[in-house]
């Protein structure tokens, strides 16, 4: 249920300034989005897994806070990021 090292490195290269830029908020949102998609697929076949559900909700909350931070600082960067990741815009 965790993201592989190779996939994480690929996301860091794609969204970060360099291959060591894992602290960038765009990179963090991309990694969280990947994990959210993986857990969502798990929850489709395991509806009663409440521990995973709680973890999923916590990840979604963390991603939402990071996205609101990005939106406050650079709206154009925010719009590009959600379009690239395929996330709906529901953050006010």
Explained architecture:
This protein is mainly alpha-helical. The protein has a single domain, classed as Helix Hairpins. 73% of the residues lie in helices and 0% in strands. It has four helices and no strands. The protein is globular and about 40 Å long. One of its GO terms (molecular function) is structural constituent of ribosome. One of the primary rRNA binding proteins, it binds directly to 16S rRNA where it helps nucleate assembly of the platform of the 30S subunit by binding and bridging several RNA helices of the 16S rRNA.
In a few lines, what is going on in this structure?
The chain is an all-alpha fold. It contains four helices and no strands. α1 crosses α2 and α2 packs antiparallel against α3.
Write the layout of secondary structure elements.
Layout: H1 5-15, H2 25-45, H3 50-73, H4 75-85
Which outline best applies? globular
CATH superfamily: S15/NS1, RNA-binding
Percentage of residues assigned to helices? over 70%
**Strand residue percentage:** under 5%
Q: What CATH architecture would you give?
A: Orthogonal Bundle
Instruction: Give the H and E element order.
Output: HHHH
Q: How many strands appear in the DSSP assignment?
A: 0
Low-confidence runs = none
Question: Total number of helical segments?
Answer: 4
Q: Can you tell me the CATH topology?
A: Helix Hairpins
Radius of gyration: 14 Å
Major β-sheet profile = none
Question: Which CATH class?
Answer: Mainly Alpha
Number of domains: 1
Distance between the termini: 31 Å
Structural class: mainly alpha
**Mean pLDDT metric:** 94
């Amino acid at each position: 249920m965790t993201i592989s090292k190779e996939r994480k490195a690929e996301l860091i290269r794609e969204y970060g300034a360099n291959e060591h830029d894992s602290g960038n908020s765009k990179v963090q949102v991309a990694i969280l989005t990947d994990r959210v998609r993986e857990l969502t697929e798990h929850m489709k076949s395991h509806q009663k897994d409440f521990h995973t559900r709680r973890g999923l909700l916590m990840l979604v909350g963390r991603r939402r806070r990071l996205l609101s931070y990005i939106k406050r600082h650079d709206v154009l960067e925010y719009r590009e990021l959600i379009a690239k990741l395929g996330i709906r815009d529901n953050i006010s």
